User: Fold these one by one.
Assistant:
Number 1:
Amino acid sequence: MARPLSVPQRDALEIIADAKVAAYGMDRHDRIVYWNEGASRVLGWSPEEVLGKMCFDVLAGRDVFGNLYCMRDCPSVRAAVAEGNMQPFLLEVKKKGSTAPTKTIVRAVSLPAPGPSIRYMSHSDLSRSSGIDARSPASSR
């Protein structure tokens, strides 16, 4: 049975829900347990399609060199747990209905304790926010 959220965790999720960025949360097993409207807008999936699924299966993120980054025991999630948060980084993720990856800046943060172990990640879609074509270096030539 899932542990109930603590008051600080509920407060944090309420703030995240209102954010314009794509934000989602994972439990300690990397299952998606939270998905906001921004995540649906930027990444294309509805909450019903992703809740309970493994984060790495949904996003299939790769670093800027094309190396698989999203995997079981996610390095960014582990860093967020160890440090409480981590520096933003660039990640290419799958977007539903698109063959081209979406370049995003990812931020990973652990929600405050006590309560179940939940980490959230936010994605900022570079192709929408920067005004540049962020699909690939070759696409800007």
Number 2:
Amino acid sequence: MKACSNWAYCRLRDSLRAAVIYARCQFKDIGMKRRLAVILSAALCVGGCISGVPVSVTNHSATALHQVVVSGKGFSESVGSIAAGATETIRVRPREETTVKVAFEADERRYSAATETAIENNDLYIVVVNVAADHTISIETPLR
């Protein structure tokens, strides 16, 4: 490297070189950060785009259902109360393949039932729960 006779010029030249090297390093980091951001966004979208499995609970009895809870492996969702003749729909997001359990109180008694077939967190399943006049529970898990 030649000796520089003009101190200000040499200082400016060295600063510009340093700035170019710094910018190149930052650009590489930005490229890597962008790739990481795209991969992370895609992963979140795939995981978050599934809105959950819809569970509808219909009360065909003459009394209100209280403390209605839908649960399975990785989730437990409170529906609250369901009036006589009413239907409530929620979405559950199981973490793995699971059966679905429904429990509630009516006429000061606790009732519960579970599915025999398992569901997964995807857009293929729906869960239909019907509570009969005598508070028996039927749960169906048809495919859409």
Number 3:
Amino acid sequence: MSNVTPIKIDIADGRLPVKGKGLEMTEFANVAELRRNQLEKLAAGFRMFAYFGFNEGVAGHITLRDPEFNDHFWVNPLGVHFSQISVSDLILVNHDGKVVQGDKDVNVAAFAIHSRLHAARPDVNAAAHSHSIYGRTFSTLGKPLEGLSQLLENLLIQYHKMHVHFMRLKECIKTFLELSKKLMRVMKLLKL
């Protein structure tokens, strides 16, 4: 065996400072700093979704409620792949679906889904909708998800509650439309 000269390497050199456990709350001097921090995290979230395969081409979206204008939210633009999104790509959309900041088009599906969610749940600051290979593959089986973990069980319970809510809403709209038609016939008969 040949003699090897040992190398002295300081493995502590270049080490990042040790962070405490748990969430670290950051104080921001103003809303602009808070917004920038959140937008950086949103852009990172898109890249993570791409890395883990939670995207299909340009389908899917993540939204973030603006910290200053609560009826506006930030969303990825139409046609930009998750892996390519940076803060400068994000667009700000108002409650009418109009782009108020940014120069790209809004994804109509993103607005349709997330505007209702953000309006109905002011306590929710962010939401994600993905078209992962895993979800699409499972959906082809035509089977309901089983509650294999506490987290999944809670998710299924919430989904069921929302589904029931939307079905009731659908029934209410249907009933309203039927009553409107009947009212119109009565008004026509009465010549009102």
Number 4:
Amino acid sequence: MSDEGCVVTMREARSAWPRRLFMALAGSLAGLALMPQASAHPFGEPQTVRLQAAGAVVTLTWTAASDDIVALGMAAGALPGRRTLVFDTAPNGKPKPVGRTEAEMIVGSASVRKYFAEHLVVRQDGRACRSRVFLAELVDTGARVTFRCPKPVTDVDVEVTMLTDVHEAYRTVAIAPDATPNRALYTARQSVHGFSFDSDAVSADSGGIVGTLGKATVAIGVVAVATLAASAAWTAARTRLGRR
């Protein structure tokens, strides 16, 4: 019979069977060790949500530790309860999952997108803003959720309940550089915080660009006037000194 492209005799196969069983059990135990445990991971580093606003759009970027991302995938039903592994009997062989990786299953899952839409909510004047979920960069730089509100953003309420349905000890730190407050802590008991965004930092999409260009033009004009004045003064001084 053949195994991994090598011919194996019946005696070798019988002698290899205990080794295969041991490797299978070891792999199963290793897999269990890597599975998220609700009693442990919630007490690690908190999740983070970064808030930004531009015009009528609020963007939330969610990041978390890899084990919390796996917990998210399981909570959303994107990951199976069991995985089939292929074991290589080579001395340095490692078990390999059959099919897509956990990251591929989570990123491509409609249930995960639905989970984000339900557990990250932005409201303006009591009305929920329409959301869109982007998971392509979830593992690398985080999931991005955009919220389009009825009017330009100033004051909004942001609700975050990520993973508190898995364990109430999960926490999320919100970071909002252009808002007041610029930081907030979400817990199972405190799931909503209000944010007031700086009106200078939040402007209409086109208006913001025009405004920025306008300020830049004024700044350049001031610098040009100052440069001409300095040049005239320096020329006058050189003339008084009899230099050219």
